[in-house]
Automatic annotation (TrEMBL):
InterPro entries in UniProt: ARM-like, ARM-type_fold, PBS_lyase_HEAT
Protein name per UniProt: PBS lyase
Domain of life: Bacteria
One Pfam family in the UniProt entry: HEAT_2
Gene3D superfamilies per record: Leucine-rich Repeat Variant
Length: 246
C-alpha cells in the first residue's frame, strides 16, 4: 500500500498530472482560443522522448501516446498565418511519428511555404512518418528546394515510402562540403538519407569514400565526428557487401 512519500505514488501522481495537462492542451487546440504555441509545445514534449522528473526519485515519465484527436488538433495549426505557430504544430506532429499519417496531406502542403523553417519542419514530419504515395508529388518537388536539408529529408521520405524516383543523384549533387563551418549533425542528415536508400545507395560509394578520408583528419577529432565516421564506415561496409552479394 502506498504511503506518504512513496516513490511509486509520487510517480503515478506526476504521470496522471502530465496526462491531464496534455488533455487540456488538446482541448485548447481544438477550440478557437488565441496563442496556441505553448499548447503545441506541450504536445511535442508529451509525444517526444521520456522526461526525467527529479521529484519522482530518478524515475522517467514515459511519453504520452498520440491520439487521433490530438494529432488532428495539432494539424489544424499547420496552415496558420504565423510561421512560429506552424513550426510548433509541425514539431508536435514530428514527435507523433507514424500516428501523424492521417494528416500528412496537410503537412505536404506546407512544403510550398515561403518560410524556410516551415518547409524544413514539414519535411521532417514526412521523413519520420513514412508518407503514403499521395504525398509523393509534393516530395518530388521538394527535391529541388533551395535548402539542402529539405532535399535530404525529401529523399528520406520518398525512400521510406517505396517511391521509384531516382534519388541517389539528388544526394550526390547535394553532398555537404566538409569545410571549417560544417557541424557534424548536418553531415548526419545527409547520411540518414543515404541509409534510407538501401541498396540503391551503392551509387554513392565514391562520395562516401571521399567523406571517409575527409573525416579522418586531426581537425575532426571530437566525439560527434567519431560517430559520423563510424556511420560512414558502416555504410561503406554494407554497400560493398551488397555489391559482392547482389
Amino acid at each position: 500500500m502506498a504511503h506518504r512519500g512513496d516513490p511509486e505514488d509520487a510517480f503515478r501522481t506526476r504521470l496522471a498530472q502530465d496526462r491531464a495537462r496534455i488533455e487540456a492542451a488538446i482541448e485548447r487546440l481544438s477550440g478557437e482560443k488565441p496563442k496556441p504555441e505553448r499548447f503545441l509545445i506541450a504536445l511535442a514534449e508529451a509525444w517526444g522522448r521520456p522526461v526525467h522528473h527529479r521529484n519522482c526519485f530518478g524515475r522517467w515519465l514515459p511519453p504520452v501516446a498520440p491520439t487521433e484527436r490530438g494529432v488532428k488538433s495539432a494539424a489544424r495549426w499547420v496552415a496558420a498565418s504565423n510561421p512560429n505557430v506552424q513550426r510548433a504544430a509541425l514539431s508536435a506532429l514530428e514527435k507523433a511519428g507514424a500516428a501523424a499519417q492521417p494528416v500528412l496531406g496537410v503537412v505536404a502542403d506546407a512544403l510550398t511555404s515561403k518560410e524556410p523553417v516551415v518547409r524544413l519542419a514539414a519535411a521532417r514530419v514526412l521523413a519520420r512518418a513514412a508518407p503514403c504515395p499521395e504525398q509523393a508529388p509534393a516530395l518530388r518537388r521538394a527535391l529541388s528546394d533551395d535548402l539542402f536539408t529539405v532535399r535530404w529529408l525529401a529523399v528520406e521520405a520518398l525512400a521510406r515510402s517505396g517511391d521509384d524516383h531516382p534519388l541517389a543523384p539528388v544526394l550526390a549533387a547535394s553532398r555537404p562540403r566538409l569545410d571549417a563551418w560544417l557541424a557534424a549533425y548536418r553531415l548526419d542528415g545527409w547520411l540518414r538519407a543515404v541509409a534510407a536508400l538501401g541498396r540503391d545507395a551503392s551509387a554513392l560509394l565514391p562520395e562516401l569514400n571521399e567523406l571517409l578520408d575527409q573525416t579522418s583528419g586531426p581537425s575532426r577529432s571530437d566525439t560527434s565526428w567519431h560517430e559520423s565516421r563510424f556511420t560512414i564506415e558502416r555504410l561503406v561496409r554494407e554497400l560493398r557487401a551488397n555489391q559482392r552479394n547482389p
